[in-house]
Structures are given as C-alpha cells and as structure tokens.
Predict the 3D structure of the following.
Amino acid sequence: MFARNWHKMRSLRDLYLPSCVLSEPGWDILLHLYAQHDAPGGNSQTSVVHASHAPQATALRWLEKLEQTGLVTQSPNPGDARGRIVRLTDDAVCRMSRVIEHFSTGLARR
C-alpha cells in the first residue's frame, strides 16, 4: 500500500512541477513493479513503460539495465506475441521491502 501511494505521489508532482526536473525512470519502474509484484501474470512491458513517466526508448533502456543488474526479469507475454511480461526478482522484492519499510517507519516517526 505504501509503495502504491508513493508511486501516486510521485505522479502527482507533475501537476505542479515540470516533469523534466523530476525524472527517475528506474525508481518509478521499481516502485510500480513492487506495488504490483503479487499481481497474477506479472506486468506487461507496456504498463511498466507507462508507469516510468519516461519516453518509451528511455524506459526500455532502464528495463534492460534493471534486468542486467538482476532486479527484474522479462519473459515473453503468452497473450501478446510482441509483448513482454516484467517481474521483480525475489531479491529485488526483498530489497524493495527493506527500502519501503525503512522509509515508511522513518516517516511515521516524524
């Protein structure tokens, strides 16, 4: 829940500030995937690109980088021969859980 709200908050910033100064596609992708990591079937590459708030080419480069670092996996989408399914690795879920826990408990103390 905290990850979903955090991702929404980051999206709402664009209403008030120029998105060109707020770009963090890798983080936005990780937040989106973490918030959806228990969704059956995973996330389509298209939905992940959209959630990154970055141009498609930029988001795809970030997905490649996240895959190379072992944080995400991409596999063929059985429902769309041209699409891919993107998921966080188990290690990434653990790491993101620690980040979310750290920030959510830190914010609660303030």
In short: The domain at 2-109 is CATH 1.10.10.10 (Arc Repressor Mutant, subunit A). The longest helix spans residues 90-109. The mean pLDDT is 84.
